[in-house]
Amino acid sequence: MTAINGQGPAGTYPPGGEDTAGQDLRALFGQSRAVFASLHGPTHVVESANPVFTAMVDEHRGLTGIALGELMPELAGPDGITGLDEVYRTGRTRTSRNVSIVVGSGAHAHPAYFDFTYEPHHNADGSVAGIRLIGVETTQLEQAQRLMAEQRALVEQIARQAPLGEVLDGMARSIEQLAPEQVLVSVLLADPDGLHLRHGAAPSLPEFYNTAIDGIATGEGVGSCGTAAHRREPVIVTDIGTDAFWDDFRDLAQQAELAACWSTPILARDGALLGTFAMYHRTPRAPQDSDLALARIFADTAALAIERHHTEEAKAAADARTEAAQQELAAALRAEHQLRAEAEQRAAAAAELAARMRSAAAAQAEAPHPDRCQLGGPTRCDEPAEIKVADSWGDAAWGCVNHVEEALLHVRSVFIASEDMGGLAAYRDR
Known about the structure:
This is GAF domain-containing protein. Keywords: Coiled coil. Pfam families: GAF_2. InterPro entries: GAF (IPR003018), GAF-like_dom_sf (IPR029016). By secondary structure, the protein is an alpha+beta fold. The protein has 3 domains: 188 residues, Beta-Lactamase (2-Layer Sandwich); 105 residues, Beta-Lactamase, CATH 3.30.450; 62 residues, no CATH class. The chain is 43% helix and 22% strand. The protein has 12 helices and 15 strands. The strands form 3 sheets. Strands 1-10-11-12-7-8-9 form a 7-stranded antiparallel sheet. Strand 4 and strand 5 form a beta hairpin. Helix 6 runs antiparallel to helix 10.
């Protein structure tokens, strides 16, 4: 296990940052190679070649005396052997651009691209003796164009506010396609407290694996990603089978057929943890400079996407709070208006009732005071009329003490009045 130090916050570089960025690009794309070979006869037998051509085609044995088609069968076609045949036949120089050939062998074989120029060289009698092959590698340009296209697509997704999962999934697939050797990419997102990592994207990892590591803690020795998040620096585990960081996850990794994991923290501009970017491999493996450069470049892109997502989430939350506050204020205003309207209605009703009562009282005041109790019913009562009772409907009568008490017990909303003292005073002070 190796921890790689010195990376600044995502989106920034340490002193000399522009040089670091340039170094990443050079590490990612390498240096262009120029090749030369002198070919003889109609079968294009190799007479001589520069060391770059020799190492590129076959680094284990000599090339002279072997036909080019045998050395590089992928050159069959109009831009390769067929083109050479044409130059040999016509004596005219030909240029073939962006020709794909396979460099290396076995697990290290990978495509490379060249611009080839085929120039005839002649015998003394003017006939074509052979062809000089001159090539300039364009793999770097091809890879740079692919990287630029992938980066442009991701930035466009971020700009149009595509869902974060969609952006990260596309980024993971892009890296898996750009990497020269098989790699499985995973992006984990940090919780707001930075103490746990959640699944972000991992299109090529098994679902059971993604589910198992969803929510792992950040901390020293918690796999590659948990440790990288804790340290805020890349952590390279070249062999999961023997590394102590993977003691708690080794069986899970073996079940998923994972043998190496290189994890890079994704950091915000202020250094806050946003997540981790991991590259898994099926066999134990140490990273090349190009692998680390690719990780740094896409960690910056992931940081941009995640920060933009957090900004949009914060804005959406603020908008939701504002809308909720506005709705609450509107509801309070509606309630206030309703209460005010109800109060006005009650005040109007009370005023109307008071007016009716005053009118009824005035009418009753004009009525003559009877001598005898009016509350005796059909049998009448000959007791003096001493107390006046009335109700809220405007009816009133004079009665004796006994019959007024009965009225108060059996009739709702009855009150006592008198000409001299008014209201209940006449009954209270009798």
